[in-house]
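re the bet — no i am not wrong, look at it urself. input seq straight from the record:
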Amino acid sequence: MRTCDSRVLLLLLLVAASREASAAEYFIQVRPLSRTMPDGQAVAMWGYALDEDHDFSTLDSPITAPGPQLTVPEGDTTLTVHLYNGLAVPTSLVIPGQVALMTPTWVEGSAVYVGQRPAGNVTARVRSFTHETAPGAVGVYSWTGLKPGTWLYQSGTHPAVQVQMGLYGAMVKASAAGEAYPGIPYARAVTLLFSEVDPVLHEAVASGTYGPGGAITSTIGYRPRYFLINGEPYSAAMGPLPVGRVGERILLRFLSAGQQTRVPVLLGAYLSLVAEGGSPLRYPSHQYSVPLPAGGTVDALLIPDTPGVLPLYDRRLGLTNGAATGGGMLRLLQVSP
């Protein structure tokens, strides 16, 4: 009997070990794209696309900004992304807040240093927070010991420019099945990724006139004209976004890839803010507005008590579509009976 118990225990330990060692893996391409905004202006952007056959010889999925949501199943502890760079400049991938081995790239004039800045050098500047992938090459980026929560993945190379151009997306990991964080269950989850577009900056980057000696030398004059949620500015043609049913615990995942703080406000219901930056709050706050800093994430629970449409908009009034009024950071959330 004792031998049988020992064998069963050993089997359970092996199963648990195999789950702990499991990993999520994605193959992603970086490519340029063009987006036509509601006022008719075409804006040059960069984006990500999933590579379905893992060989990068063809474009298997649409290029989008934000990129595809990366979901790491509960129980998985490692995420690996194979990144093909289809741009004319180096790029990289980081997930702020998650642990990874990072090798920064430093530049000083035409000199490039990888890893450590040379001893005694105090003038070289960081171009990339981690190892870069050259144009036409494939880079591999891995994270271990993943923490559950809502996270922003983005370019780690010249992020003030490359993130603005569209190199960002959401990465989510549940603590357990139907549980966002330990002790925080939910029935449905909805991602709401806020971002901004400065078309003048985009044009300068796409045309090669951004940088020292160019038409635009830095992002200090950053002035967004388009305001997006999940890559789309609101227009009257949009229908409501289904989020769940009355009485359900609906997890709203708020993320910001913009350079300015946003304040999403929900009309007609309250939210319970349960986590910020992937860290659960000790005392969740009950409110209808969500302070969302640049590059930040916030998880909030919505438990609607009546069916209908709940408007969600940016309190800082990012509500224009360039030359067209009415739109921007606005969504109508549909609650079903």
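see?? Helices lie at 2-20, 159-165, 199-207. told u. also Residues 7-21 have pLDDT under 50 and may be disordered. so pay up
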